[in-house]
């Protein structure tokens, strides 16, 4: 039986200075720091362009338009405008 590693697929040359790598590193650090796997996901709003949810003490917001703005009132934190 043969076991393949990332190097077999040419994935051993990560650019740790790239903005995507840095973003993923920050997200992973937040996940570990706040142990979000111990909390349930609570949807706070949803439409075709914006999706926020909380998980423990973390509020995550995803949007597909840079200039998009939304006000979320059901989140459990202070007032937040995106």
Helix content: 10-25%
Count of the separate structural domains: 1
Largest sheet: 3 strands, antiparallel
Based on the structure, what is the oligomeric state of the protein chains? single chain
**Class based on secondary structure composition and strand pairing:** alpha+beta
Tell me the number of strands.
5
> What sort of overall outline do the alpha carbons produce when their principal axes are compared?
flat
SS element count, helices: 1
Strand order of the largest sheet: 1-2-3
Q: Please tell me the overall pLDDT.
A: 82
Low-confidence stretches: none
- The helix/strand series, from N terminus to C terminus, equals HEEEEE
Distance between the termini: 51 Å
In terms of DSSP E residues, the strand content is: 15-25%
* Rg on CA atoms, Å: 17 Å
Detailed description of the structure:
The chain has about 80 residues and is of the alpha+beta class. Helices cover about 20% and strands about 25% of the residues. The protein has one domain (about 5-80). It is built from 1 helix and 5 strands. A 3-stranded antiparallel β-sheet has the order 1-2-3, with no helix packed on it. Strands 4-5 form a two-stranded antiparallel ribbon. A hairpin with a 2-residue loop joins strand 2 (about 50-55) and strand 3. The protein is flat and about 40 Å long. The N and C termini lie far apart (about 50 Å).
């Amino acid at each position: 039986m043969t076991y393949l590693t990332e190097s077999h697929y040419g994935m051993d040359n990560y650019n740790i200075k790239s903005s995507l790598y840095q973003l993923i590193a920050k997200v992973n650090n937040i996940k570990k720091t706040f142990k979000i796997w111990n909390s349930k996901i609570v949807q706070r709003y949803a439409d075709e362009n914006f999706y926020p949810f909380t998980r423990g003490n973390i509020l995550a917001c995803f949007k597909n338009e840079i200039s998009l703005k939304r006000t979320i009132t059901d989140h459990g934190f202070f007032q937040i405008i995106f």
